[in-house]
Design brief:
The protein is mainly β. The protein folds into 2 domains: 53-75 and 216-304, no CATH class; 77-213. 13% of the residues lie in helices and 33% in strands. It contains 5 helices and 16 strands. The strands form 2 sheets. Strands 1, 2, 11, 12, 13, 14, 15 and 16 form an 8-stranded mixed beta sheet that branches. β5 (113-118) and β6 form a beta hairpin. The radius of gyration is 22 Å and the shape is globular.
Amino acid sequence: MLVMLLSVPATSTAAQSTPIAFGDSSTGTPPVSEVAAELPPADLPTTNERGYTFAIEGTLTADLGAVVEEAPVFQLIVPDFDSEDAILIAKQLEIGGTVEERSDDTFSAVGNGELFIAPMLIQYYSPATVRPGDLPSDEEAVAFAREWLRLTGLSPRDLGDGNVDPRIDRPDQVVVLFKPLAPSPLLAAFPAITVSLGANGTILEATLRWADLSEPDLYQLRPAEDAWRQVENGQAYIDVDLDPDAFPFEANVMGTAEYSEISLAYTTSGTPGEDQYLQPVFVFDGEFTPEGGEPVTHIRAYVPALVNSETPVGELLHDRRV
């Protein structure tokens, strides 16, 4: 029944699909990493997405002595798709049209759906149209999306559990987000796969921005006390749940925060097209009380965890729960 509900290529073909290699294209296995002695800065934003500035007096109740002193770092092995890969992907999606090479590493095909392939991207649009009907439950949507990825050969070997993306509100669609099994939690938007489903689990589109991971290398973390001082001094990236009516765009947010937990999460570092990594950042969790009192709300402060990764740059998925 699961396959019947999916708008997938004919099962007689899809059942024989060849898994697509997302690491080294010759073997499908990422090479052993030789991580550089100094890594690029962690990708953390320098400004809040609503332009907020913060004047927060923070206190800490978390036990800094319990924080680990080292953590693994992973190099991202970005897939290098060639024309044979593109033809195989188009065949397994049953596009039917001719695969055109738009440049040395970019391909497209139009037929029974549309396909675009680049070094860090596979973008697929199915021929199905958005129709009225019952959307699958979250559990069903994740199962349908995972099965479709498997049937089409697009399921990476380290695909995580998946969840319905709460950031995307489309009344006629459900969007399932997959990230790697490890490291977790992953704050960055890459590697990730999104699959959009319509009524009755029909696949509408899929976006794959994926890479395999090298064998991890252990890196020494900066002292947790130093990280906390950076939070105290207002040098952290702040993610806080605020009412936009009470705090308009570019507001100066004032108040107090009590941070009761400290943990590690992962984000990307490095420039696309060059060496990129997944490296740890410290996450301070707590409660924020705006100036004037209620309502109390959740707050998180992010700072780099490696000794040589002091300058936050880039993009963080907003409101991702660690």
